[in-house]
Amino acid sequence: MSKGGVTVLIVAAIVFLALGFVLGQVVEAAYEVPGSADDPLVSQSYVEALVGERLAGLQTEVDELRAQVEVLQGNTDVGGGDITGGNDNPPVGGGNDDDPTRVKVTGASVNIRATASTSANIVGSVVKDDVLTYLGTSNNWYNVKLSDGTTGWIRNDLCTAPY
User: Fold this and answer.
1) Which of 8, 100, 115, 158 has a CB 3.0–4.6 Å from the CB of 107, allowing a cystine?
2) Considering the entire predicted model, what is its pTM?
């Protein structure tokens, strides 16, 4: 091969190498940074936080649908207030001041409501395995006290009692 042919090959190789480098940089810039929130291979803590947020939203939707079912079945008043016909006795296993009955949250992220209704204002939020002080019962709801002293209502299917 002649000197001119070798020179052309070397120049072509350098041009293709430079072109490959530039294209690689463009492709890399077009995609997310590894480990960021947009990266499909994100950290476990990011995924857990995202799942928790979505579960909280879904839990609210489920609560609202349950309330609608109860209204249709005649278990609540149409105004969305307190449930009538409640039982203020604590569950078996406690309830006195020296040894109050407690309930343990089983739902991933649960809202505590001002009254025993999914349409009531949210006064607090608890997560799975939180333990609350039991205060009373009204149909499918427990009246509870949180560790910060806030009182409210939690659906009995989102916790276990007595605990």
Assistant:
1) 158
2) 0.42
